[in-house]
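Working notes for the structural subgroup meeting. M.R. asked for a predicted model of this chain before we commit to crystallization trials. I am recording the input and output together here so anyone reviewing the notebook later can reproduce the run.

Input as submitted:
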Amino acid sequence: MSDESGRSTKRSPDTLPLPEDGVATATKGGDMSTDGETSSRRGGRIPRLPSPGALFRILALLLVLVVAAGLVSFVAGWRPSLNPFKEREIDRSSPAVLRSLEDLSDYHAASGHFEVVVDVEEDTKWIPSSLKGERVLFVGIGTVDAVVNFGGLDVDRIIVSEDGKTVTIRLPAPTLSKPQMDFERSYVVARQRGALDRIGGLFGGQSTDQGLYIKATEQMTAAAAADGQIIALGKANTTSMLQGLLGALGYENVSVIYEEDQK
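Returned structure, recorded in token form:
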């Protein structure tokens, strides 16, 4: 085939000339395709979107998995940990057993909070403290209560006037309770031990702190007895409580006498 100038042109055996409008394309074998089909074949197949039903099933499955994982985490307390050496606490303590019951008739009328410092040193004569000896500085925190015993209150201790408007009650004097140590707040400030005591501690010879708590309670009891404010406050609170209670029953005058105040 030649053009108007007489030169011959070669035609590819695999393609046909495009139409002037460029709409259709001829391929090998004589098949015709549109521009859209040609672009899809050149660039790959156009991905098909999932149908609404399939998309809904996928979202529902993901939601079920998330809820199931949350329930497992909440119920089992599962938490992932990246530390393989993480310590855990295993409590094998046996349950508490009730051994006895005791009737209580004490009225705790007042409470005093105490903080004492215990400085105890144990040494051995003729041996330096750097080799043998121990010194402990301990801070003890606890409470001491003023207690009134109502167990002996009977008709002989309650005197009512003839007009029924005045009542007199005789009570035993308030006493101090045993100190209640606060084990969570009490602590050892410093502990110094000799070399021999430290070596002995490696073989189970370390001393306990029970003696420190005993000394702290003794100091609290002595301080509460010497101060006297807890006993006085216990009397005032007990009197106020009885006046309010008996006043609500119709008594206009309520008098409380403590045995130690009687002359």
